[in-house]
Every structure is written in C-alpha cells, then in structure tokens.
Design brief:
Largest sheet: none
Order of helices and strands: HHHHHHHHHHHHHH
Distance between the termini: 37 Å
Structural class: mainly alpha
Low-confidence stretches: none
C-alpha cells in the first residue's frame, strides 16, 4: 500500500523536520520516517474498520426497531443495509481483525462520530436509491460502500478533525490513504470470504529500500546537491527562497542521482506536485523550471546518465 508517492511526501516532511531539529541524528530520523509510514498503514486499516463500525451501529439500531415493531405492531424494518454482504465479509476479514485486536483505541470508543455517520448515510440519496433498488446482490452491496465512502467518508470534516487529534501524521495522510481504501473495496471478491487479502504494507522490499536510500541520500549529499542548484542558476539566492523549496529540490536531485531507472521527467513532475501542496503558491512553477535546468545541466556535464526531451 505504501507507494512511492507517499514515500516522497514523507521524505519531504521528515527531511524538513530533520533540519528543524537541533539534535541531527540521521539514524533516529530514519526510524521516524518508517514510523510515519507505518502510521499511514494503520490509518488504512482504521478506515476499513470504520465501515464495519457503521454496519454494527446499523445492526444495533435495527434490533431496537425490530423490538419496537414487535411491541407496537408496525412494519418489520428492512435488514438490507445492516446485513450488507460486503460489510459482513469485511467484518470477518482475518487481517483486519488481527489489526483491530492489537489496537488500544477502536471505533467502539467513538460512538458519537459513528452514529452521526450512520445518520448521514441514512439521509443520503445513495442510501435511498440502494434500499429501493430491486437488484439485491453482492456487487450492489459493494458498490454502495464505494459510493458512500467517496461521498461521506473521503470528505468528512468531523472525521478529519478526530483523526488529527489521534495522530499528527494522519492529517496529511488521509487523502492518499483514501485512494487505497477505495481500491480495496473494488478488489473485494465474495468468493474469498474472510481470507480476502488486504493491501500489504509494502508491495515489495524495493519500495522500503527506496525510502531508506532516498532519505539518506537527501541528507548525506545535501551540500553536493545544493552545489548543483547553484551551478544551474547563476542568480541563485537562498535567502529569497522558501526553505521548503530548497528541501523539495534537494530531495528531487537525490532521486535523480540515486535511482537510474526512474525517468527524470517523472521525478520532476512528482516533486512539482508536492510543491503545490507544501510550499508557496509560486513555488511549483519555479521548482519546475529549476529542476528542469538542473537535470539538463547534470546530463550535459556527464554526471547524470538519463535523457530529457528537447524543449519545444
């Protein structure tokens, strides 16, 4: 699940923190990087567990409604949402239950936000259309939760505030992690039952190694990379730049120099996108031009064995 986009973002955050920290210890900083990445995986599991918590709340309220119907003689309430096939499968998932069993704090400790989310779901047009849909199968049940997640969980101020209270890391992680939760919903197959595989923390050891090498190269070779910046710009003036801009370009150069298989254009585009999120409004255009100039200069001087398309 932890992909290179997330690793780049975390490397920028932790490199910035490294320079802000007076006690610069690269081994400690590297441990913090991997802890931060592991917290993103925790968030992935926690958001999956939130759907289970909402389904459990639906069952609790269904039992109350059924008891009232028996007592007062009203219509029997529908069980369709409470016993949605997708959330039943998710509730039984072995990997998710292993995660939940190791958590001190679960959604059972947050009844207010779970209850509010359930009520928002009940009031939504997505829910009403689902309850009225004559097609009743697993695919319909799974698609309901994909739509609900995109509409009511992906953009949810109350949930964002709660997650930020629980972990400073999660405020920046959620947007990326949401995409992985949606991918997981789509991947679920009824035939796999409780053994359905969730996304692994890392797709492979290469990504973990990529994180370590990128972080260490960014810091250990900082002087060299900043020299490349100066060579590529005669009018270079650090005092006029946002500090985050320097960090972003330093890490981008680390990726250019350390990973020969990653095209230069990919590296530049990825770090320009990060600049749009983490630096000043004008930074992305400036960083785009600077990184392009730096990469071409390094290729021209034989220090970077990559290719760049000719400018139009």
């Amino acid at each position: 699940m932890i992909n290179r986009e997330l690793i780049r973002i975390k490397t920028v955050q932790l490199t910035y923190a490294y320079y802000q920290n007076g006690n610069k210890n690269i081994d400690t900083a590297e441990k913090e990087l991997f802890f931060s990445l592991s917290k993103a995986y925790d968030l992935y599991n926690l958001l999956l567990a939130l759907m289970v918590a909402v389904a459990k709340e639906a069952k609790r309220r269904l039992e109350i409604a059924e008891a009232r119907a028996r007592r007062e003689g009203g219509d029997k309430p529908s069980t369709r949402f409470a016993y949605n096939r997708f959330t039943l499968q998710l509730e039984e998932n072995h990997q998710l239950n292993d995660f939940i069993s190791n958590q001190k704090h679960t959604w059972a400790d947050e009844p207010e936000i779970v209850g509010k989310l359930f009520e928002q779901i009940e009031q939504s047009q997505i829910y009403k259309d689902y309850m009225a849909d004559p097609v009743d199968n697993y695919a319909t049940d799974r698609e309901l939760w994909r739509k609900l997640y995109r509409t009511l969980i992906q953009e949810n101020g109350d949930l964002d505030a709660l997650l930020e209270e629980q972990s400073l890391y999660w405020n920046d992680d959620k947007e990326v992690v949401d995409t992985f939760v949606l991918k997981t919903i789509k991947r679920f197959d009824e035939q796999n039952g409780p053994k359905q595989e969730l996304l692994p923390e890392y797709d492979n050891e290469e990504d973990k190694d990529y994180a370590r090498k990128l972080f260490r190269a960014s810091i250990l070779n900082a002087d060299e990379y900043q020299h490349y910046m100066s060579e590529a710009s005669r009018n270079w003036d650090f005092s006029r730049l946002a500090y985050m801009d320097v960090i972003i370009m330093q890490i981008a150069i680390a990726e250019l120099m350390t990973f020969p298989s990653i095209p230069a254009s990919v590296t530049i585009n990825e770090f320009v996108d990060i600049a749009k999120l983490y630096s000043t409004p004008k930074s992305s255009a400036y960083i785009n031009g600077m990184l392009d100039a730096i990469a071409r200069h390094l290729i021209r001087t034989g220090r970077l064995m990559k290719r760049m398309e000719d400018k139009q």
